């Protein structure tokens, strides 16, 4: 017997509502294009692409082994910022430009070029979680830094990914925080801190 639109679905909702939920689930779980494909689509959105690509020599190598920033590098970094706000970025260590965001600490990926500054990174994460606690009325502590990206501004900025535990509620959350380091170096500003967000993939 055919089920009418007003009849009940096994999940306890009407069939038409179940169909809508399935459609939304299908939309959310549709296959995300590979990053290379997303990057090509993103590059096409630059109205000044021709200007950025002019006189570009991808084979030019600087004395330190890096190359000048290309249009592809610019678009790739902008895509990282769009999708993850700078908390997950590609490897730009081959780019000889101070404006890139570099991963300086990520033990899981065997990146430890910033390990010397780990005590400062931990202090920044603690400052960020204290600000979060004050804003949200929480009691997170016991900070564990997972990953850190750095950008050369003011004079530098940390993109921190870290875990913290709230003993009063017995929960552990992963956080993201952007912290600016000023001159003198002891002055730090937490730009924002939040529970880690999923990527916002570019899928036009």
Automatic annotation (TrEMBL):
Residues 16-29 have a biased composition (Basic and acidic residues). This is Cystatin domain-containing protein. Residues 1-29 are annotated as: Disordered. Coiled coil: none annotated.
